[in-house]
Amino acid sequence: MTPLTDAFGQVQQWLFEQAVQPVMFAAGMGNLLEDAYAATGWLLVGLIQLVLMLCLIAPLQRWRPVEYFGFDKGVRADVIYTLLHRLGVFRVAMFFSVEPLLDGLFGQARVLGLDGVQLDAEMAPWWPGVTDTAWASFVLYLLVFDLVDYWIHRGQHHVNRWWALHAVHHSQRHMTMWSDNRNHLLDDVIRDLIIAFTARAIGVPPGQFVAVVAVTQLIENLSHANARLSFGWLGERLLVGPKFHRLHHAIGLGHEGDKPGSLGGCNFAVLFPIWDIVFRTARFDGQFAATGIRDQLPQQGGRDYGEGFWAQQWLGLKRLIGQG
User: Taking a C-beta distance cutoff of 8 angstroms, is the pair 246, 225 a contact?
Assistant: First the structure.
């Protein structure tokens, strides 16, 4: 892993010195250079992700699309969500809001004699003989965060108030590789707060955390793709793909209970279906069904979830307080 991290660090340093640092000095924000350097890393990761999406996932959508549709307003809104996240806008907002909160929380915990664990060091005896422990740690963190994400996702589908926000994600009738980041911003804040807290508690190094997030997001882009793609009997049980995850988005099936208005669902895993298998929420019998929410259908009331970014955010808040 060292050659990869070294190459990434060199490009990050160049981008910071050539583009970010001059802007920071010109804006009189020289006191934030260290934080800006970290933000440059996230920006670089986002740019790499966008290139991979356009070069690898987009051709799959054109090659074997599940359905044909144009670049409508809903898809354009999904692109806006993706750019907000991948170009670091949301990450910067989280830095100024959530990071100070976690700094204070963990600082107070240390004063009280409470400290987190270094999970990879604790687990090292379980992989004797492994020479590149960075890869072993990376896989470990992927598994841990995916388990946390599984339970976050279960909460989003089983707590009514949380579902009111998460419904923004499921209201997309034309799912594409851009749909992963289509979330209510408050929903994103809640999830990222839990993930960031977990990262601090188990001692994830910053570089490993960035890598885990980057890989997770790319796989999520693939699993949301408008691509008629299956990994086969074994592959579908090893990694979440478009077929497995599309069932989760299927109208009246993948994210709802048996009765209209009830919550439930299946296939909650983000990366590894093993969690759905272990906790008995896995389904592998689905096809490439239509996506959306049951009450969007005209015969079920035709509920409006909004087409544009601001409409989706506003209607999500109204549902949260029981007025939408």
Answer: no
Q: What is the pLDDT along the chain (324 residues), one digit of tens a residue?
A: 677 778 888 998 999 889 888 988 888 888 878 888 888 999 999 999 999 999 999 999 999 999 999 889 999 999 999 999 999 888 888 877 778 888 888 888 888 777 777 787 777 666 666 656 778 888 999 999 999 999 999 999 989 899 999 999 999 999 999 999 999 999 999 999 999 999 999 988 888 899 999 999 999 999 999 999 999 999 999 999 999 999 999 998 767 665 555 567 899 999 999 999 999 999 998 788 899 999 899 988 899 999 999 999 999 999 999 876
Contact between 209 and 199 (Cβ < 8 Å):
yes
CA distance readout (Å), 94 to 180, 201, 305, 311: 18, 18, 25, 22
Cα dihedral 55, 59, 65, 70, rounded to 10, equals 70
Distance between CA atoms of residues 25 and 119, nearest Å: 38
236 touches 243 (CB < 8 A): yes
Task: Give strand ranges (E) for the chain.
Answer: none
CA-CA distance, 140 to 198, in Å (whole number)? 13
In which domain, by residue range, is 178 found? 2-320
Strand, helix or coil for residue 166: helix
Question: What's the pTM value of the predicted model, to 2 decimals?
Answer: 0.90
